Structure formats: C-alpha cells, structure tokens
Amino acid sequence: MQNSIAIWRKTLELSQAKVAKLAAVTWQTINAIENDKYNPSLSLAFKLA
C-alpha cells in the first residue's frame, strides 16, 4: 500500500506541524511516516485517515 500522507497534506495546504498537532504526535513522526521510515500504529493511522 502506497503512503499518500504527503500528497493529501499538501493538497489540503497543511504543514507537517499542523498535521502532527491534529494527530497529537510530533512533526518528526509525520515526517518519518511520509518518508516510509515508520509505520503508524493502527490508532494513529485512523487519526490520519
């Protein structure tokens, strides 16, 4: 499954920091997810969806 977090984030004109704040994680976590260095937990994946 392809990671499309960055595509949707840019489409919605949101920064990594804003997405992180909404999901209650750090911007580093969002960056790692976007760069396929970290797989989010199921609960975080639902928050991002």
UniProtKB/TrEMBL annotation:
PROSITE patterns: HTH_CROC1 (PS50943). Residues 5-49 form the HTH cro/C1-type domain. It comes from the Bacteria. Pfam families: HTH_3. CDD domains: HTH_XRE. Gene3D superfamilies: lambda repressor-like DNA-binding domains. SUPFAM superfamilies: lambda repressor-like DNA-binding domains. This is Helix-turn-helix transcriptional regulator.
